[in-house]
Fold these 3 entries.
Entry 1:
Amino acid sequence: MPLTDSAIKTAKPKEKPYKLSDAHGLYLEITCSGSKLWRLKYRIAGKEKKLALGPYPTVSLAQARQKREEARELLAREIDPSAERKAAKQAQRTNGLTFETLALEWFEYNAPRWAESTRDKAKLYLEKDINSVIGARPVKTITRPELVELVRKVEARGALNVAGKIRQWLHQIFRFGLASGVVEANPATDLDVIAAPQRATRHHPHVTFAELPELLAKAEKANINALTRHAIRLLVLTAVRPGELRQAPWSEFDLAGATWTIPKERMKARRPHVVPLPLQAIAILRQLEEITGEYPLVFPGQNNSDRPMSDNTINKALRLMGYEGRQTGHGFRHLLSTELNGRGYNRDWIERQLAHGDNNEIRDTYNHANYLEQRREMMQAWADSIGALCAGANVVSIKRNA
C-alpha cells in the first residue's frame, strides 16, 4: 500500500531501523533515534543502488514522490541519478569558485613540501601581485589575455624574476584546477613565450679576499644593529645562505660539538646540511647567546621576536657601509668559493660546504654526508686566514691536495 502522511507521522522508532515502503523503490527509513529519512532504491547497469532524498518532514511525502519521478526519468534515459547529483553539485561549486579559493587550496596542498623561504615568497606574490588583481574572479571566467596583462605589469616594474615565478605558479594553480575538475582548460600555458627578455645573468657581487679586512672594519664602525654586524661576520665564516642564517633557531646549534645542523625543511636542496663551526664563529655565537639566547631564534626581528630578522637587513647594512653593487649577503658564498678553489682545496669539499648538489644524482645521493672533518679543517683554516689578514699578516695561499 502507498504511504500516507498519517502513517508517517505515527511511525515510532524501534530497537532496530526499519522501512515504510511507498512505491517504485521509494521508502522511508525510521532510525533508532526517531529520524525519518527518505531513500530511493533503484537499479542501473545491473547494480542496485540507493539515493538519499532528504529527511521528513523537511521533505514531505509529495516532494519525495516528485524527486522519485525525476530520478525515474533519468533512469529511463540510462542516467544514474546519484552521478547526476554529484555532477550538479560539482558544477555549482565550480561556477562560483573564485581564483583566490583555488589558489589557497593549491598553496595548502604544496606548502608542506616547500622550504620556508619558498612558502613565504609564494604567499607574498599571491597576495600582492595575483589575488589583488584576479582573486575575486570566478576561476572559470579568467582568460589568457588577462594573465598576460597581469604578468606584464610585474615585468614593467623591472621584477623579471618575480614575473617568472608568477608565470610558473599561475600555470601550476590552473593545472591543480584541471586535476581537481574545477576548470576545463589552463589559460596559463605558454605565458613564457611572450615573457620580457631576461637581463644578462649577474652573479652576486663580492669583494676580493684582500678587501675583506676593510669591509669587516667598516662593519665594526658602521651605525648598524649589533645583530646585523654579527650576522655579516657569520656569513663570512660559514658561507651559508643569508636566509639559512636569518631563520636559524638556537636548537640547531651544538656549540660544544662545533656544528650547526640545518634540517632539510630549511634547505634549498631539501636535505639536511651540517655546517662545521670554526672557533671564531663559536665565539660570535657565544656573544649572541648573551643577547638573544632567551629567544627561539638566533636573529629575532626587532619588532617581533617570533619572526626572523628581515631578509633585506644585511644587504641594507652593506649599502650603508658603501658596498652597494660591490657586496651582498649572498656574495660572501662566491667570495669563499673563489678563494678556496684558488687555494687548491678539493672542489667536492667546497661544494658540500656551500650545500650545492652534484649533477650526478647517484654520486650526489651517496656523497651527501661526506667530508665533514675535511670541511671542518678547511673552514678553520679559512677563518684563521681571515684573522691573520685582518691582523696585517702576509697570508700565503697554501696549496691543498685533493
Note: DSSP finds 16 helices and seven strands in the chain.
Entry 2:
Amino acid sequence: MRELEERIRNEGTVRAGDVLKVDAFLNHQCDVGLFDRMGSAWAAHFAGKRITKILTIEASGIGIACVAARHFGDAPVVFAKKAQSINLDGDQYTTTVYSFTKQREFPVIVAKKYLNAGDHVLLIDDFLANGKALRGLIDLCMAAGATVEGIGIAVEKGFQGGGDALRAEGYDVDSLAIVESMDPKTGDITFRH
C-alpha cells in the first residue's frame, strides 16, 4: 500500500534497536481515514474467504481492527487482553507471548464465549516483527477450534523474519507495508515489493 509506505517514510522515525515509531498516524494518534483504506485493502485481498470474527491484541490493534471490520460485513472484533481483570469472567483461553516493543512476556486472554469452534478468523495487528504476538493469537484460535483464514498487518518488519516464517507455514499474511531495512543513523527506510 503505497500510501502507508509514504506515511512511514515521511512521518515515521527509525530508532536504534530496530524500532520504527509511527505513532503520529498508526498507534498513538490514529488516522481513521487511513485505517478505513487499510480495511478496504485487506477486504480486497481476503475476498472470497469467510470471515466471521476479527481477532487482535490490545492495545494498538484495536482501532485498526474495528475500522477494518466495516469492510467484512461488520464481523465482530474480539481483542485478546494482556492482563487478567475482574471484568474477565467465565472460562478463558490463555497463552503467553513475548512483546518485541515491551521486551517482556505477558499473558493474552480471550473469554471462551467470544471465540468458538466454527469461527473463521482474520487476525489483524499494527506491527509484525518476530511474530510472537500472532503466534499467541493463533494458539488461542487453535485452542478454540477456530480457523485462521488470514492475517492482516499494517507494518511488517520483514528483516525480522516473523512474516516469512508464518507464510512458510501456509498462513495468508497480507502486510500493507513491509520494511526490508531501516537505518537509525540516516533514517532511511527500504520497502519490500
Note: The chain has one domain: 2-191.
Entry 3:
Amino acid sequence: MDNSQYLTIQALTKYIKRKFDKDPHLSGIYVKGEISNFKRHSSGHMYFTLKDERARILAVMFSSANASMKFNPENGMNVLLRGDISVYEAGGQYQIYVKEMQPDGIGDLFLAYQQLKEKLEKQGLFSEARKKPIPKFPRKIGVITSPTGAAVRDIITTIERRYPIGEIVVYPALVQGERAAQSIAESIKKANKNEEIDVLIVGRGGGSIEELWAFNEERVALAISNSEVPVISAVGHETDFTIADFAADMRAPTPTAAAELAVPHIDDLLERVLNQKIMLIRGMKTRLKSERARLKSVTSSIIFRNPRRLYEQKIEAVDHLTEKLNRNQRVRMQAGREKLGHLDSNLKRVHPRRLWEQKNEQHLRTAKQLQANFSTILRQKQNDFSRTISTLEALSPLKIMDRGYSLVYSEDSKLVKSKEAVKEGEKVTVHLQDGKLYCHIDSIEESEN
C-alpha cells in the first residue's frame, strides 16, 4: 500500500478540529456542571474540569473573558457556562472554551459580595478595634455622594435644620457605574487632605444590588478603612447592607439618618446649655451662701477677735520644745562623749604605734635570743671542728712522715701499698717530709712474712 494514503496525527487532528469548528451545534452552547481541578494560571487564564454524575469535559476560560467576572470560581461550585466546543490540537482532546460563566442557583453579584465580605473580615477590616469615634460637635462635615441625587439634598437639609452652625463640604462622586468605585475612593482620599474635615458621610440613595455595587468594591472598603477622618456610611435603604457599611466607623440606614448621626440637634444643645446655666446659677448661689456663712463664722470667732490667743499657745509650745531639745541635746552629747572615750581607748589599744612598739620589743627579744643561740651553736661547732682537726692530724700521712716514714706513688699517682701494684722497670715517686725522690725499680723481692 502506498504510504501517501496514511494521514499524519497532525492532519487527522486538524480535520477533526475543523469538523468541530464548523458544527453550528457546538458553537455558543450552554452547559451546566460542577467545577473540579480548578487552576488559575499566572497569565490570568482559567483551566478546570466541568463534570456531572456521568461525564466530564475539560474547560478553558481566557483572561479576556473572565476579567469582568464578579466572583471567584472554586472547586465544587455549580456553574452555568456559555462557550464553544473545539479541539486542542497539541493534546488531541476536545474541550469547551468558556465565554461567560455564572453561579448556578445564585446571582454572581451576591456571590462576589459574600466572597469579598469574608475576605475583608478575615483581614480584620471590620474589627471594632479599628472603628474611630464620631466627634460630638463637628465644625465641618464632608459629604461624598452624587451632587445631583436626592441623597445630597436630604443630608444638607437635615444638617442645616439640626445643626446650622456646622459647615458642609460636598465632594462630588459617581455612585453608579463602572467608574463609581474609583470616583468614591478618590473623593475619600481628597477629603482626608482637608485637615478641617471632622467627619465624612459616604453614601447614596437606595437601589438594586447592581446600582449599589460600587459600595461593594474592595477599593472603596479600603479607602474607608484607611481614612483618618471618621466615616459614616449611608448607602441605600434600611434593609440594604454593603461592604462599605461594615468598613465604616458607623452605619446609618439612610442618608437622612447619617446626617442625624453626624451632628447633634441645635435645640437639644440649647436645652442642655440652658440646663447647665440653671445648674451653674443654682450652684453659684449655694456656694455663695455657704461661703458667706463661713465668712460670718470666721469673723465672729474668738480667734479672729483676739488673734493673740492664736500664737500665745504656740509660743508656749515653742518654749517646751526648746527645753526638750536642749535636754535631749545634753543627753546625746554625754552619750557621745562616753562613746568617744570608749572609741579612744580602743584606738589607743590598737593604735599602729602601740602595735609597732610591741612588735619592736618582740623583735629585740627574738634578736637577743637568736644571738645567744647563735653564739652557743658557734662555740659548739668550733669545739667540734677542733676535735675533728686533731683527729685528722693524728690520722694524716704527713704526721706519719714526721716520724720518719715515706709514701710511694706509682706512675699514675696511686699510693703503692703492695708489690703487686708495681712492676720491674717502672718508675715510682717517694714522698718524704722534706721532698720527693724519683726512683726506678730494678727488682722486686717478696717479704719473708
Note: The chain has a mean pLDDT of 86.
